[in-house]
Structures are given as structure tokens and as C-alpha cells.
Design a protein that fits this description.
Radius of gyration of chain A: 18 Å
Strand content of chain A: under 5%
Order of helices and strands of chain B: HHHHH
Structural class of chain A: mainly alpha
Largest sheet of chain B: none
CATH architecture of chain B: Orthogonal Bundle
Shape of chain A: globular
CATH superfamily of the largest domain in chain A: Winged helix-like DNA-binding domain superfamily/Winged helix DNA-binding domain
Oligomer: heterodimer
Strand order of the largest sheet of chain A: 1-2
Number of helices of chain A: 10
Number of strands of chain A: 2
CATH topology of chain B: Arc Repressor Mutant, subunit A
Radius of gyration of chain B: 22 Å
CATH topology of the largest domain in chain A: Arc Repressor Mutant, subunit A
Strand content of chain B: under 5%
Number of domains of chain B: 1
Largest interface: A-B, 58 and 51 residues
CATH class of chain B: Mainly Alpha
CATH architecture of the largest domain in chain A: Orthogonal Bundle
Order of helices and strands of chain A: HHHHEHHHHHHE
Number of strands of chain B: 0
Number of helices of chain B: 5
Distance between the termini of chain A: 37 Å
Structural class of chain B: mainly alpha
Helix content of chain A: 55-70%
CATH class of the largest domain in chain A: Mainly Alpha
Chain lengths: 207, 87
């Protein structure tokens, strides 16, 4: 069952519509949010803290230029993420569109030689899990090991909450391609959080 | 912690895409009920889904960082400067 737009998405669309109609306060909030998106994307996907401010500046200018031409406010979000992605690429020329390495499903799915699985989920809330500093470090390390093309997809879907279609539009991919990368990225993160710490080169990432 | 190991069988592997659709809330109510019945009975898929959900929960919570105060200040200042200059 496809879910309808989330309240947060509707609020964002309303903000875009108000900004496009000339509401100064809405425009201020939108220009701030564009920079926040750029900061998060730059840090999480491109991984270069020093470039985040450049990406923020670019997102700010592009959003300001683009807002008056907005015809469909609901299409603004993927446009913004595409702009941010391009700003990140410009600053470092990191390719996030083509994976250099593939994630092998066989290596990512549990097999007999894998360690026993972790305790069932929901025994701790996400906030409790996230406050576990060891788990945070393992997650951060695992995300950094993902090829950028996979990292961008899982970040947009699972952290930023974009739909599959919005993610596809933002990254210039087909929806099937988004799903394929998302599933592998999630399987990789699951495995890295479930198993005992591994050596530096993770299994499942192959040239 | 379970001491048993639950490798993924070919049957379960064939169900993988449905499990992801289930995690994303993109299955019909009837399909959802059928999958939940399967998850309760199949340790392999049950472990996989609970581990995936845990990883997604942790990443969602950890990844959604707030901007540090100094970055927030600079972002707000840039907005003000731009609007003062251009409007």
C-alpha cells in the first residue's frame, strides 16, 4: 500500500508555494532549509566537512534563483537535492552517480559462516540505540565504507525521508535502480551493525 | 541473543524485495498480514527484517544531525545578506 504524502512533506510544499508567491518569511525559512539540506548532504554523502559551507552557499544562490520559476511546489524537494548534490560534486568532483564497486547480495545476506544475529529489534528505542556510542561509531564507519552512489540513496531515503520517486529524480536514476542500491546499502549496514567488528576491508564490496 | 544461525534460503531470498516493500510500508494490507505471518514463523526472514529495521532506525536517528550553532548563525546571516541585497 502506497502511503500518501507525510505531514512534513505537505508542510514543506506549502512553504515552497508561499515562498514562490513572494512571502518573505517563507522565503527566509526556505533559503535556510536549503542550506541545512546542503550541509547534511555534504557531510553525510560527500564526507568533506570543509566543503559543506561551499555547498551551502551554492544551494542558497540556486534556490533563490530557482524559486520564482517554480511551477509545481511538490517537485521542489528533488530539485533542491539535485542542486545540492551537484554543488557537492562541483566542490570535490566526487562521483555519486556511478558506483565504483558493486555490493554483492550473496555477501550481504546471512550465511552459515556469519556470526549469530543480534537481539531482536524494538528492545530499545531508536533514540536509545543511537545514544549507544559504540553503535554510533560502527554505523558511522559502515556508512563511510559504502560507495558514494549507495550512500546518497540510503541517506536520501532513510535519513531525509524522500520517496523512491523523489530520490530517483534527485539523483537522476530509475526507481528500480534506487531500490536496488537502497536494498544493498541497508543490507550492508545491517550486517555491519549485527556482526562483530570486522577487518578494514569489508566483505561484500568487490571491485 | 539467539544462539542459532539462520542462513537465508532460496525461498527467503526470493521474498527479499517484498520484505523491503513491507519495511517501507508499500504492501497491501492483505500482503502485509501474510508477510507478518511468515515473519513470525521464519527465523531467517524474521532476523533479517528485525536487523534491517534496527539499522534503518539507528541511521535515521544518527544521520539527522542538527546544524551546529555556528553553522546555523552563518546560514541565517547569508540569507539576510542575500535578501537585503537582492530585494
Amino acid at each position: 500500500m502506497k502511503e500518501g504524502p507525510r505531514p512534513a512533506d505537505l508542510a514543506f510544499t506549502a512553504l515552497v508555494a508561499s515562498a514562490a508567491a513572494g512571502d518573505r518569511q517563507a522565503l527566509e525559512r526556505l533559503l535556510y532549509e536549503a542550506q541545512a539540506v546542503a550541509w547534511r548532504f555534504s557531510r553525510a554523502v560527500c564526507g568533506h566537512a570543509e566543503d559543506a559551507e561551499d555547498a551551502m552557499q551554492e544551494a542558497l544562490i540556486q534556490t533563490f534563483r530557482g524559486i520564482s520559476g517554480i511551477k509545481r511546489p511538490e517537485a521542489f524537494r528533488p530539485w533542491l537535492y539535485r542542486t545540492v548534490r551537484n554543488a557537492c560534486l562541483m566542490s570535490r568532483r566526487t562521483r555519486v552517480d556511478e558506483p565504483r564497486r558493486l555490493l554483492s547480495l550473496d555477501a550481504l545476506l546471512p550465511s552459515p559462516e556469519h556470526a549469530p544475529v543480534h537481539p531482536p529489534a524494538r528492545t530499545r528505542t531508536p533514540e536509545q540505540l543511537a545514544s549507544d556510542s559504540r553503535l554510533r561509531r560502527r554505523l558511522t564507519r559502515a556508512v563511510a565504507q559504502l560507495p558514494p552512489a549507495f550512500r546518497a540513496v540510503v541517506f536520501l531515503r532513510d535519513v531525509e525521508g524522500l520517496s523512491t520517486r523523489e530520490t530517483a529524480q534527485a539523483l537522476g536514476l530509475s526507481e528500480d535502480n534506487v531500490k536496488a542500491r537502497l536494498h544493498r546499502a541497508r543490507l550492508f549496514l545491517r550486517r555491519e551493525l549485527a556482526d562483530p567488528p570486522r577487518p578494514r576491508q569489508p566483505k561484500g564490496l568487490r571491485p | 541473543m539467539s544462539a542459532r544461525r539462520h542462513p537465508v534460503s532460496q525461498d527467503c531470498r526470493a521474498r527479499l524485495r517484498q520484505l523491503f516493500d513491507y519495511l517501507d510500508g508499500e504492501v497491501s494490507p492483505a500482503r502485509c498480514a501474510a508477510l507478518e505471518k511468515h515473519l513470525a514463523a521464519c527465523a531467517c526472514c524474521g532476523d533479517l527484517v528485525s536487523g534491517l529495521r534496527r539499522a534503518m532506525d539507528v541511521y535515521r536517528t544518527v544521520g539527522r544531525q542538527r546544524l551546529p550553532p555556528d553553522v546555523q548563525r552563518r546560514a541565517k546571516r547569508r540569507v539576510k545578506q542575500l535578501l537585503d541585497e537582492r530585494t
